[in-house]
Design goal:
Elements: E1 5-7, H1 8-15, H2 19-28, E2 38-40, H3 41-51, H4 63-70, H5 73-79, E3 89-90, E4 94-99, H6 105-113, E5 130-136, E6 139-145, H7 149-157, E7 165-171, H8 178-190, E8 194-199, H9 208-217, E9 231-233, H10 242-256, E10 259-260, E11 267-276, E12 280-289, E13 292-293, E14 297-300, E15 303-306, E16 309-311, E17 317-318, E18 320-321, E19 326-330, E20 341-345, H11 348-369, H12 377-382, E21 388-395, H13 398-409, E22 417-425, H14 430-439, E23 442-446, H15 452-461, E24 465-468, H16 471-485, E25 489-506, E26 509-522, E27 526-531, E28 534-546, E29 549-550, E30 553-555, E31 559-564, E32 575-584
Parallel strand pairs: 4-6, 4-7, 7-8, 8-9, 21-22, 21-23, 23-24
Antiparallel strand pairs: 1-2, 3-10, 5-6, 11-12, 11-20, 12-19, 13-18, 14-15, 14-20, 16-17, 16-19, 25-26, 25-32, 26-30, 26-31, 27-28, 27-32, 28-29, 28-31
Length: 587
Amino acid sequence: MLPRTIQVGELAKAFDRSVVDVMQALVNLGLMVTINQTVDFDTAALVAGELGIEVMLEEQPTVAEAEAEEATPAVREALWTDDDPSRLRERAPVVTVLGHVDHGKTSLLDAVRQTNITARESGGITQHIGAYQVEHKGRKVTWIDTPGHQAFTAMRARGAAVTDVAVLVVAADDGVQPQTVEAISHIRAADVPMVVALNKIDRAEADPDRVKAQLAEQGVTIEEYGGDVPLVPVSAKTKQGLDDLLDVVLLVADVRELKADPDRAAVGNVIEAHIERGRGPVATVLIRTGTLARGDLVVAGTAYGRVRAMIDDRGKTINKAEPSRPVEILGLPDVPEAGDVVRAVPDEKTAKAAVEEEQRRRAEGVAGERPATLDEMFAQAKEGKAKELKIVLKADVQGSLEAIRGSLAKLPQEEVGLNVIHAAVGDITESDITLAAASNAVIIGFNNKLDAPAKRVADQMQVDVRLYKVIYELLDEVQKALVGMLEPVMVEQVLGHAEVRQTFTSGKTTIAGCMVVDGLVRRGAQARLLRGGAPVYDGRIGTLKRFKDDAREVAAGLECGLTLEGHNDVATGDVVEAYAVQAKARG
């Protein structure tokens, strides 16, 4: 038990350790103090962690901490995840940069940050996920630079939708390339606004009009052509248009009215994590809401620990991180996964409960979270969970791709939509798998193959991949899935007719003596009573007899006696029409 503040010398006594050991631990934390200086409880707790000692605060817990201590997991979750609407404040937008390789994504980000990352990375290619914050006209913008759209979608597949705006980088001298098309599909699937950065505009070979036309062919209609996608000509080399790009990003973000509560416990996502020699597990975390402080106890996926240190994107040690701020944290015992939720919690008991809940959720959620297969789409529709069949389509050549897309568009889609979220030429890749997993889509391949790495990912994510050699088989299977997903049509089938020849009364029940004139009548079948050709009753046949014996059904040409459920107004000359209603798939 420790007080809120304590002198270093007294802290050593409380720990039953030498002053030298305690001061060395403080130095490890980046603090230079004397034996008579006072440290707060959070710092003392960090020292305790360094020395392998568990400590508690002597003071009574706050009301909120007491509530969290006694709450059920569901109530505890609400205590530290819900924002207070009255305390919401504007936060910085989070921007992800996507595009084809060599189109200048990292170089553009370098220019925006006024730094040079590319030079210190192997081959000038981004090797890891980085998150950086810049300031423009007094406002902050957080940028996420990824090795490609696959990482962007892999995080989304794990529920980490951290991006507010996506910047699609397209080289003005190279135009729309296969990875550009893939990036467009990933951005659309994530349902985030897009801004096109037309890079390398300074080059003599730049052809902006050609690129704009190519984008239009991919369904990306820029504002100049009457669409809603802003396009900004830029040059990472000359820094042309960078201010305009930042202006547009902030304008798009303003439309979304991005807000967070900075005064609550922090919640964020792991962007990247690794083990670093001499530092242990290091996680790059993007704070979504709340404020993370050094010394906070945090849960990250299935691990928890105290934040021993925080470093910003400039390598500077900081004490707190506000909403939308990226920061590296040290102090976790294990390396979390990209996309893991990070939460600051009030105490170790809550941390352990949260970790156990996450472990249970992951163990139980594997089957529930996997994408649906083509065969399961019908079952989902029956439960009201799916009214759209999403497809990632890959073909061997452009001609086949266009032919298949055209044929798919002609399939009946009265109630269930067919959404080709991505279509491209080539073999099925890991990127296709992650896109399908994040979008709950099925992958359709024509005259191509699934390479070994992609197959491993597909098996791991349990994505349904269908490969075809004959186009008609492909279309037939997709059509069957679409028809199966439609609400079935209820079709009435007439079983037969029986003419009432005589009526009898037994107590309060009227028995109709009939002759079956066509088809058959069946006990329990639905029936109408027709008088003069007009229906006067619609219900069910109650009892059915042949002479004195109960009968299941009576065929044409035979006599029978029957009753109608809840109806006794039967007269000679009436006709009983027996029928059945069946669900029939739409074709």
